[in-house]
Amino acid sequence: MSILITGGAGYIGSHTVVELQNAGYSVVVVDNFSNSFPEALRRVEKITGKRVPFYKADIRDRSAMEEIFRKEKFECCIHFAGFKAVGQSVTAPWEYYDNNINGTLALIDVMRKYRTKNMIFSSSATVYGKPAFVPITEDCPKGKIVNPYGRTKSMQEEILADIQKADPEWNVILLRYFNPIGAHISGLIGESPVGIPGNLVPYIAQVAVRRLEKLLIYGNDYHTRDGTGIRDYIHVSDLAVGHVKALEAVRQNPGLEIYNLGTGKGYSVLEVVRCFEQVSGVPIPCQVVSRRPGDIAVCYADAGKAERELKWKTTRSLADMCLDSWRWQLGNPNGYHDACS
Ligand code: NAD
Ligand code: WQD
């Protein structure tokens, strides 16, 4: 029996494949490469020394998915596939609802048909909206979500919860990620954004290699210790290990469970910039501009539930995250694009 990894060539998926293979699991990746490259999987193979079987397919394509399910035997699906750019979701919401919602529905359909009823889903701290309190526990009420991307995540959660309720043979674990950054310590795999990065650390990394001129800091007038936004940055390899732990849990028939995956610590934009400068030795020019619409002041996890129940804890520091991002960026200034041109 294998683990189906949808979106396994992407940023978080590829790091998760590494940790799963290192833990002895057999995986099969399905990805349409709409936001990734097969090269990522070749590099995973270099890291783990194991072959990564994969199919190029769109999860919305039911007949392609059925063909895969007929050939393979899956005990669980870890579902990463989807679009994730907040800005794009505002300008092209139809694409986000189609890919994220229809994709998940089509996948569930095929999983039901072939009786694979264990699912680990990539959700996001974005479902808390402007959180009612910090640190955020899993029972913090969902807040008002200000963009279509976030709404698709929240809807996907609800769809999966309803399905599990209707058919208790399903086991569903919803993982709410905080802010994943960093890269595998080898520097072989990492985040490879298309166009100008929307997220903080990939942007800083591109300023550091002088692909971008300066970082625009979105507001220094928040009620935080230095006025800039505070987030819970988590190393992508720690996050990946969280999936291995969730997989162990889903096999114990938990029904429906939700876990925050974060470190429990918040860092400000200025603290991240200073840390990146320190580990790279490169100054990062910055300019403070007005707040980005939709941003909140502070967001960090109470990760206690995952620690207690999944026996999972992050081990990497902010300096590790910045150093690993820097190593990846230096070795691959254009992400995977160079390896594919
Ligand atoms: P990513 O874009 O790097 O990975 C997603 C992968 O899914 C890509 O390889 C893409 O080609 C593939 N894909 C997209 N649509 C597909 C389809 N219809 N069929 C098959 N493959 C498809 O993104 P990521 O950062 O690795 O995020 C993975 C998941 O985690 C996403 O669901 C995202 O919403 C969620 N998430 C990400 C973050 C983050 O900050 N990166 C935070 C919270 C949640
Ligand atoms: C972090 C901080 C910005 C860029 C987003 C999604 C969320 C989740 C993770 C998927 C904030 C500041 C940023 C820049 C800046 N993704 N910033 N200049 O907004 O917490 O979360 O990614 O689920 O859904 O919304 O992350 O990295 O964009 O921002 O000053 O150029 O950095 O204002 O305080 P965010 P981020």
UniProtKB/TrEMBL annotation:
Its cofactor is NAD(+). Keywords: Carbohydrate metabolism, Galactose metabolism, Isomerase, NAD. The keyword Cell membrane does not apply. Transmembrane segments: none annotated. Pathway: Carbohydrate metabolism; galactose metabolism. InterPro entries: Epimerase_deHydtase, NAD(P)-bd_dom_sf, UDP_G4E. The keyword Isomerase applies. Its EC number is 5.1.3.2. One of its GO terms (cellular component) is cytosol. GO terms for biological process: galactose metabolic process. Residues 3-262 form the NAD-dependent epimerase/dehydratase domain. It catalyses: UDP-alpha-D-glucose = UDP-alpha-D-galactose. One of its GO terms (molecular function) is UDP-glucose 4-epimerase activity. Pfam families: Epimerase. NCBIfam families: galE, PRK10675.1. Homodimer. Belongs to the NAD(P)-dependent epimerase/dehydratase family. This is UDP-glucose 4-epimerase. It comes from Syntrophobotulus glycolicus (strain DSM 8271 / FlGlyR).
